[in-house]
């Protein structure tokens, strides 16, 4: 009888422990999922959870994951990449981009989707809804509850451009490494293998186990110790500040003979070109989900605003061309005719924007003012006619909408000052 009671008690304790363990299991952010190996051989590897861009529903981004085949022998070059974020004088996200010779380098298993660029990026793995703002977790992971594990993300270059330019709003700096295709392949193999390591107990540390340290570990494994003789401050225990501080990384690469001329991509870029040995890579950012980033009810307004900007730029460029060639040039009147058509489209777009804005004057004027502030626009960027139209609209709405008068007057004051 006692033995039965004892067995039941042990069973109950184990059951309670199991239930509490299961209930405490973290719910991870679905947009930060590590890759898993499906199959591999000496020439290629098939992975699950590879990022192929993000969907945008008007409010939230969600990652598309696809089973992907990667061929090692198709890689031609490696770029060391950096994205500054606040506080920009010290903070930067570092990752590696691999460029393939052709579309065979990276493709979904069904062959329907291909990419010539692969990105390996290490970051802190967050729980769903968690903000990466905990200084305690960043600096003292072993002393905090639920520290962040490190996670290696593997995805297409298109995914990274969308994530960086549209989601985070970061500029990108790319440094092509001075290595040949043979060494690019060894670095890619190293990056894939390190991406597959179980990181559940490998905790993120803002100085000693971060994105830049991970990128240099991949390079060290792929190129050899001789390129990074001062990687460790204390052998196998603490990395040197030369490879742990992101702002020093580009200079360190140059000193090791690996750095080269920088490629800059602005966060407001609409077309991106990345040089390649086998034909340049071109990306149309305007076609990526989230380009006209706004909530669902604001999306038609955002798209019309983008149209206005493009028409305004085209009109300005044509005027500059007419001024340059002069009235006596045989093509001058043809260019003026094009400009007249574009100006008519501009006027029509202003009317459409005001029609939409009247449905929700507060929401749309808030969005418009925020867009001006965020993109640091000025009246010389071609927005003066639209600003004047908005000022008239807000004057009218402020006089007839007492409940929202304070907000409308605030936006009106900003646009009036902005348009001087």
Question: Which class best fits the helix and strand makeup?
Answer: alpha+beta
Please tell me the total number of domains: 2
From the N-terminal CA to the C-terminal CA, the straight-line distance is: 92 Å
Order of helices and strands: HEEEEEEEEHEHEHHEEHEEEHHHHH
Main-sheet strand order equals 9-8-5-4-10-13
Mean pLDDT: 84
Number of strands: 15
**Helical residue percent band:** 40-55%
Radius of gyration: 27 Å
Shape: globular
Strand content: 15-25%
Largest sheet features: 6 strands, antiparallel
Helical stretch count? 11
Low-confidence stretches: 1-23
Give a verbal description of the structure.
The protein is of the alpha+beta class. The chain folds into two domains: 36-287, no CATH class; 296-418. It is built from eleven helices and 15 strands. It has helices at residues 2-23, 135-139, 157-168, 181-195, 211-223, 246-255, 299-325, 332-357, 361-375, 384-400, 405-418; strands at 36-40, 44-56, 61-71, 75-84, 92-100, 106-108, 114-115, 117-124, 150-156, 172-176, 232-234, 238-239, 263-265, 271-274, 281-284. The strands form four sheets. It has a six-stranded antiparallel beta sheet, sandwiched between helices. Helix 4 crosses helix 5 (211-223) and helix 10 runs antiparallel to helix 11. The chain is globular.
